Amino acid sequence: MALLKHRSPCLLFALILLINKYAELAEAVSVEQGSNTELNTQARFNDTGLNETLLKVDAEEQPGDEPTEKVDDTQPRLVVRRVTPDMVLDDDDLRTGNKITDNYSYLYGVYLTKGHYLRIENHKGLRLIVKSPNKEQSIRAKLGVVTINGKTVCTDSRSLPTKQTYQKTPDGAMWYTNLSLGSPMSPKEIEEFKADEELNAEEELRQKKKEDRRREKERRKSEKAAANADRMISELHKILSIFF
């Protein structure tokens, strides 16, 4: 007992440090859980009812772009993004997504590397599904103007016809769109395009399920870590109360 009393100041100091450490850990876990929840919510956001991930097709200002400004502290600067069929979505892409407004014609969709396949749509009716042999195939849009590989193909995406057609362009790309891009596909090409689209839809679903499982695993891990930290803090408080 005498030894315990002699060392009690050191033990008390050590316990206080441990409590602070685990409190910081619990707070960090809580912040991480909040971030994951926000990301998952945004990933599930769907303004058209399609099973697609929201992604603002706008990344950096380029010469000739009309200037844009922040709406408030929570909304980032609205800029233009170039998109290619070989893009891979990551957490940063998901976080750039903004709810579509009537003032800006944003595109969003799912982008897969396999087969240089790209599908994008917007709430005003524009639809682009493309399978391209060229991974540098780029699409750019802002304020209703759509540019493909540097060429303007649409000046107002809000006034497009609702009917889509199967088309092909000289660069080898095959499109299902309501834009006027090239010549009609043959019946055989249409069937091949549909088959590829089904395969890509299946791949999208597999990837989505895989990502959902990963996020659920991370969520459970974070919850377990938070529970352990809370339990440890509670035990340390009980021990600390002995010294008072």
UniProtKB/TrEMBL annotation:
Region of interest (Disordered), ranges: 194-230
Signal keyword on record: yes
Compositional bias (Basic and acidic residues): 194-224
Keywords from the UniProt entry: Signal
Stretch forming the signal peptide: 1-28
UniProt protein name: SP28.7
